[in-house]
Design goal:
Layout lengths: L5 H10 L3 H55 L1
Length: 74
Amino acid sequence: MDFFSISDRYYDLLMAESAKERFKQGALMVGAVVANSAIAAGKVAGEVVKRLPDAVEKESARIKDEAERKKKEG
C-alpha cells in the first residue's frame, strides 16, 4: 500500500474558500497523517515478522554457546 500525499492535502487546505471547507480539508490532512502512520507501522511489523525466525535462531545459538562456555569455565 502506498502512502497518502500530505502535500496534496495541505494544498487543498490552502485553497479552501470557506471555514467549513478548511475544516474539512484539515480533517482530511490529519486523516492522511494517521493513515500514513498506520501504513508505516504495518510495513515495519511485516519486516519484523519476516526476520523473526532468523533472530530467534541466532539468539538460541548464542544462548547455547554461552551455556557451553560457562560449563567449561567451571
